[in-house]
């Protein structure tokens, strides 16, 4: 799933290639992906892309004041094309293509743009055409951005205070903190040397400070690694930079212990017992506690 660092990089990638160009058309293939009807998606045709920004995991293309907001969900991706002039007309079907945005041809006759694709059978990729990004429910309900200056250790303390949620779930909750998903929550907790099942409200001031530092540094490092990369290279970069996520059975880069995996909610998490749980493995069941 694309998370904050990848979406931030995609936003930068599109700023360099799409801003200042005119939208020729947006072709929606997966009808269920389009979540709004007023304004119609056809209203984007003829408008100029004036900016690209990010709201948590949402990508926002500002087209003369009308916004195309994209959420790539778990299996969605953006594929840039230097020339879509020869692309076949899109037709609804069972393939991965969900939508295509075509930009007007340049002086050389090339018509660049991008395609939105989604793998798998669970189609959750979402498109919104709105006058204000806050009209998108998922954007309106976002918690603070962890890379914003206002996201301080004191701000995190207010978030965890009195919260009986396991810290892994809290980090993934977009209404609490925007942009962190399954992968980077694993990475953050490993960097903070914290059990994913620790209850948020039990954190000491020192642990909150360590967690805040781990959140900010982990995300900033990932953003820097992805900066300037082509969209097609972001997935490989993300995978290469992960220390624990999706590395079950491999040695921990910090201590050498074997990275383990347990079920969590609708997915799984990976962690290092030595670094995070005092050497004790977590029971592989939901709402697990440390084995005694």
Chain-wise SSE layout:
Blueprint: H1 4-17, E1 23-28, E2 49-55, E3 58-63, E4 66-71, E5 76-81, E6 97-103, E7 113-118, E8 126-130, H2 137-140, H3 153-160, H4 167-172, H5 182-191, H6 205-226, H7 234-241, E9 260-264, E10 267-271, H8 273-276
Antiparallel strand pairs: 1-6, 2-3, 3-4, 4-8, 5-7, 6-7, 9-10
Tell me about this structure.
This protein has 2 domains: 4-140, N-terminal domain of MutM-like DNA repair proteins, CATH 3.20.190.10; 153-276, Helicase, Ruva Protein, domain 3 (Orthogonal Bundle). Strand 2 and strand 3 (58-63) form a beta hairpin. The strands form 3 sheets. It has a 4-stranded antiparallel β-sheet, with no helix packed on it. Strands 2-3-4-8 form a 4-stranded antiparallel β-sheet, covered by helices on one side. Strands 9-10 form a two-stranded antiparallel ribbon. With 292 residues, the protein is an alpha+beta fold. 26% of the residues lie in helices and 20% in strands. It contains 8 helices and 10 strands. It comes from Nonomuraea montanisoli.
């Amino acid at each position: 799933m694309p998370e904050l660092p990848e979406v931030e990089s995609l936003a930068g990638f599109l700023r360099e290639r799409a801003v200042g160009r005119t939208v020729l058309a947006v072709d929606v293939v997966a009808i269920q992906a389009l979540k709004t009807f007023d304004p119609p998606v056809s209203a984007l045709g003829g408008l100029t892309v004036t900016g690209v920004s990010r709201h948590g995991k949402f990508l926002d293309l500002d087209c003369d004041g009308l916004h195309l907001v994209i959420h790539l969900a778990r299996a969605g991706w953006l594929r840039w094309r230097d020339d879509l002039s020869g692309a076949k007309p899109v037709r609804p079907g069972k393939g991965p293509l969900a939508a295509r945005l075509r930009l007007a041809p340049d002086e050389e006759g090339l018509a660049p743009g991008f395609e939105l694709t989604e793998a798998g059978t669970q189609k959750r990729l979402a498109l919104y055409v709105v006058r204000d990004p806050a009209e998108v429910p998922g954007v309106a309900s976002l918690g603070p951005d962890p890379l914003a200056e206002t996201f301080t250790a004191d701000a995190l303390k207010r978030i965890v205070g009195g919260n009986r949620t396991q810290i892994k779930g809290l980090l993934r909750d977009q209404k609490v903190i925007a942009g962190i998903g399954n992968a980077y929550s694993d990475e953050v907790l490993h960097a903070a040397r914290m059990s994913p099942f620790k209850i948020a409200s039990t954190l000491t001031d020192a642990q909150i400070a360590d967690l805040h530092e781990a959140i900010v540094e982990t995300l900033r490092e990932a953003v820097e690694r992805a900066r300037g990369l082509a969209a097609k290279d972001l997935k490989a970069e993300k995978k290469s930079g992960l220390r624990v996520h999706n590395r079950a059975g491999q040695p921990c880069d910090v201590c050498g212990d074997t990275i383990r995996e347990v079920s969590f909610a609708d997915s799984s998490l990976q962690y290092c017992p030595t670094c995070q749980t005092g050497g004790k493995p977590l029971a592989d069941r939901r709402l697990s506690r440390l084995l005694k």
